[in-house]
Design a protein that fits this description.
Number of strands: 13
Strand order of the largest sheet: 1-5-4-3-2
Distance between the termini: 41 Å
CATH architecture of the largest domain: 3-Layer(aba) Sandwich
Helix content: 25-40%
CATH topology of the largest domain: Rossmann fold
Largest sheet: 5 strands, mixed
């Protein structure tokens, strides 16, 4: 992959992604990538900023993961007992708050407070560390873990877990999934991958209080 410095603005904020079966094009105001997926070569013109590189990697990895049976998920990710537990949520749901509570308690290792990677491998879902973080601004946690469970987030005065309907889980996961492609084939893959995850790992709902990390004893 050839990188070429090209200073540009960040506008538009969301990248445009197109794929004709061989050539992948990803473009935003501050980067422009053309990749031959068969030859595995390409040219990326980028603005020399951390934000630009972060955005380009999110766009590229989300495209590749969806086509390999996985996806990137806006979620908090914690490790407990050698397994990964994900807590998907849109902005403001409490992902960073939950992660900070877990990190401060010493009872749960944080994978990421913003974006976690999921992929189906040999019939099992696994979570992977990523370089993408939110408020915690950490360096990333390398490794992969068997998925132990998924919990939808709900802020509450007290900690507790309740059953979550599959339809609600499916809807929330689709809202939290990272995808910049708008074509019908990608949409079909996204829906199929999400349905496979919901079927294999039914989600619960975690009510958590920002006052303490007692919720950790409830998961798993």
């Amino acid at each position: 992959m050839e990188l070429v410095e090209d200073r540009g603005s960040q506008n538009p904020f969301k990248p445009a992604v197109s794929f004709d079966g061989r050539t992948l094009k990803i473009k935003r105001g501050d980067f422009d990538a053309v990749i031959d997926t068969r030859a595995r070569t390409g040219v990326v013109k980028v603005s020399p900023t951390e934000q630009c590189l972060d955005a380009f990697l999110r766009s590229l990895l989300s495209f590749l993961l969806i086509r390999s049976g996985g996806f990137m998920l806006h979620s908090a990710g914690l490790v407990k007992g050698g397994k990964a537990y994900l807590f998907p949520g849109i902005s403001g749901a409490g992902k960073s708050t939950l992660s900070k509570l877990a990190a401060g308690s010493g009872g749960g290792g944080v994978i990421s407070d913003e974006i976690n990677i999921l992929r189906l491998e040999k019939g099992r879902w696994r979570a992977f560390g990523s370089p993408f973080w939110g408020e915690m601004r950490a360096d990333g946690r390398p490794g992969s873990w068997t998925l132990g469970g998924i919990y939808l987030l709900k802020k509450s005065a007290a900690n507790g877990i309740s059953i979550c309907a599959q339809a609600q889980s499916y809807k929330t996961l689709l809202r939290c999934l990272v995808n910049f492609s708008k074509d019908a084939k990608t949409a079909a893959l996204v829906m199929a991958n999400t349905a496979r995850l919901v079927s294999a790992s039914p989600a619960g709902q975690l009510k958590f209080s920002k006052e303490n990390a007692d919720f950790l004893r409830l998961i798993g």
